[in-house]
Design brief:
single chain, alpha/beta, Nucleoside Triphosphate Pyrophosphohydrolase, TIM Barrel, 2 domains, eight-stranded parallel β-barrel, seven-stranded mixed sheet, 8 helices, metal-binding, hydrolase activity
Length: about 325
């Protein structure tokens, strides 16, 4: 049972190709001169999508459709707790205008980090950076086969991957990491290295680090710079709290289902996954027995999407 009484707010991310529609909060409002994603309070008897359709018509004079879930963010301000139900769509009727006198503008998604937003929007910005499929590299025999499999995965639409190559000699890992980073960037994908944070000093071109749950307790605060992604693997509520303490950009929560690598270990299931996600302010990937067909379920339970080895790594 939550100790907090939340005000539920529907937030809409309106997209036009690679651009996002934002509104500037006015002088008389809290967080004045901060940009925001349009939306508003969910009225009694409304669903989040009904609230979004109403708010966008009132605020921006546009009819919208086909809203898809992105993330749910609980946030505690000094005097109020809100729960942001964030959806995204690219289906709308006309050019948005500031119906209430507010400035409305389109921004490139990768320029959003340069703008001032209310603090509660941090998780939305992170979710917009990340794909709904997070591939973890699996088995391979030699560098050539590794690159062949990685290239095939990237060509199939993978945009975010984790290089996990345990047991390699350091020179073999270096050779593969350099090639993986180069290939991922060539194909417009991001790659995180699984291991200790000092890997970023060795491979500064990597997009970030994926920290195993047994490594996160070494830190009292975020151990890498903000311009790199910090992913954290978690299994328990304690892990989740520590991941948030060190300012993880996103979290992996596992195992959701029983996995071939740990047969006999029951997964937490979707109901527990959804319960844990409710208290997390950053994107969460479901891990453990996941396949592409589980993405819709993960999103419906508040997740960013799914992470997988066998589900995405070519056999």
């Amino acid at each position: 049972m939550s100790l907090h009484s939340y005000i539920d707010i529907a937030i809409g991310v309106l997209k036009k190709e690679t651009k996002i529609c934002l509104a500037l909060r006015q002088k008389h409002q809290s967080h004045a001169n901060h940009w925001e994603f349009p939306g508003g309070k969910i009225e009694k008897g409304e669903t989040p999508i009904q609230a979004l359709k109403r708010e966008f018509l009132e605020e921006l004079a546009v009819e919208t459709d086909n809203w898809q879930p992105l993330i749910v963010i609980p946030w505690h301000y000094e005097k109020v707790s809100v729960r942001l139900h964030v959806y995204t769509t690219d289906e709308y009727s006309s050019e948005p205008v500031g119906n209430e006198g507010q400035q409305v503008k389109w921004f490139e998604v990768f320029d959003l980090h340069q703008l001032a937003f209310p603090a509660a929007n941090t998780g939305i910005l992170k979710a917009l950076q990340l794909a709904d499929k997070y591939m973890i590299t699996g088995s391979f025999n030699g560098k050539d086969e590794f690159l062949q499999k990685l290239s095939s995965a990237l060509d199939s639409g993978i945009e975010l991957c984790q290089l996990r190559a345990k047991g390699l000699a350091s020179n073999e890992f270096s050779d593969i990491a350099e090639a993986a980073i180069s290939l991922c960037h060539q194909k417009k994908a991001k790659v995180l290295l699984n291991g200790k944070i000092d890997l970023l000093a060795e491979f500064p071109e990597a997009d970030g680090i994926q920290l195993a749950s047994n490594l996160i307790y070494e830190f009292e605060k975020r151990p890498i710079t903000k311009n790199k992604l910090l992913g954290v693997s978690t299994h328990t509520n304690e892990d989740i709290q520590q991941a948030l303490k060190i300012d993880a950009d996103f979290i992996l929560l596992s195992p959701v289902k029983e996995t071939s690598s740990h047969p006999g270990t029951a997964g937490i299931g979707w109901e527990t996954f959804a319960q844990r996600v409710q208290s997390i302010t950053v994107p969460v990937y479901a891990l453990g027995g996941m396949k592409a067909g589980d993405i819709e379920m993960a999103k419906s339970q508040g997740g960013q999407g799914v992470a997988a080895i066998s589900g995405f790594w070519p056999g």
